Automatic annotation (TrEMBL):
Organism: Lutzomyia longipalpis
Keywords for this protein: Membrane, Transmembrane, Transmembrane helix
Region (Disordered): 1-34, 237-261
Secretion signal, residue range per the UniProt entry: none
GO-annotated biological processes: establishment of glial blood-brain barrier; regulation of tube length, open tracheal system; septate junction assembly
Protein name: Putative conserved plasma membrane protein
GO cellular-component term (any): plasma membrane
Top-level taxon in the UniProt lineage: Eukaryota
Bias kind Polar residues: ranges: 7-34
Length: 261
């Protein structure tokens, strides 16, 4: 018998490459992902409310809002301390001697329960002002470094601050006589501050949503790169450890010494 090269007597179907499986799978994943993204509906509160346009830049607007919030916090603390001082000095039955720069005629001197409520509003306004001041400093740092998670404390604190100051403003405007300059000035100031605060909050919230979306995209990109790298590494390892000849090789592996005529 003559042992040598063997001619294949049958035709074998070619085996698909590993890379073709990977490519087809990734394309299926991409198509499925695009279909799933189109089918998913994002809630309205997770969509940026304000966007960049020819007249406004959200990032610059958020930074300006942070600087204005510092001024609002300081203004709230100062006016809160002044209101408590005036309510204490103008308590019913109190007597003052000497020369005073201001008159306390504008201070409410009616029901003691209403006065106590005004004092409570002023006291909590001071605390809220300090909270806004601290979180606004955190906001400025977060905006400079684009850390969206550090924006959340300011969003919560300032939202509560706006609601609380709206109630305090209504209570103050209804009870105090608007014939005195101080009361009129405070009402006008808060009429300007409160709507501006709402607009500034929407600016920062819109920027927060944009930064959160960018972070999600970066995480997905890193995850995909890591997955592809692991797949490539496993594929390379499997190809390097496979047999040097295919199962259908035409080269005989019988030792030379075994050949006989």
């Amino acid at each position: 018998m003559n042992y040598g090269r063997k001619t294949p007597t049958s035709t074998y179907r070619s085996t698909p490459s590993v890379y073709s499986h990977i490519t087809g799978r990734s394309s299926n994943l991409q198509s499925g992902k695009s279909r799933s993204l189109k089918s998913v509906r994002i809630p309205w509160y997770q969509k940026p409310i304000l966007k960049n346009n020819a007249y406004m830049d959200v990032q610059k607007g958020a930074m300006i809002t942070a600087l204005i919030c510092l001024c609002v916090a300081i203004f709230t603390i100062v006016t809160g301390v002044f209101d408590i001082y005036c309510l204490a000095m103008a308590a019913p039955g109190s007597t003052h001697y000497g020369y005073y720069i201001i008159s306390y005629e504008f201070v409410y001197v009616g029901s003691i329960h209403v006065r106590n409520t005004l004092i409570v509003f002023a006291l909590f306004s001071i605390l809220a002002g300090f909270a806004v001041f601290v979180t606004t400093i955190m906001l400025i740092i977060a905006l400079r470094k684009e850390y969206e998670k550090k924006i959340l404390p300011w969003l919560w604190v300032f939202a509560i601050f706006i609601i609380f100051r709206t109630l305090a403003f209504l209570f103050f405007a209804i009870l105090n006589d608007l014939i005195f300059a101080y009361n009129i000035l405070m009402v006008l100031c808060w009429i300007i501050i409160l709507p501006s605060s709402v607009y500034g909050w929407l600016l920062v919230y819109s920027l927060y949503l944009e930064l959160a979306d960018l972070t999600k995209l970066e995480d997905l990109a890193h995850l995909r790169m890591g997955t592809m790298a692991s797949l490539n590494a496993s594929t390379t390892h499997s190809l390097a450890g496979s047999r040097p000849t295919t199962p259908h090789s035409t080269v005989s592996t019988m030792p030379v010494g075994g050949i006989s005529n």
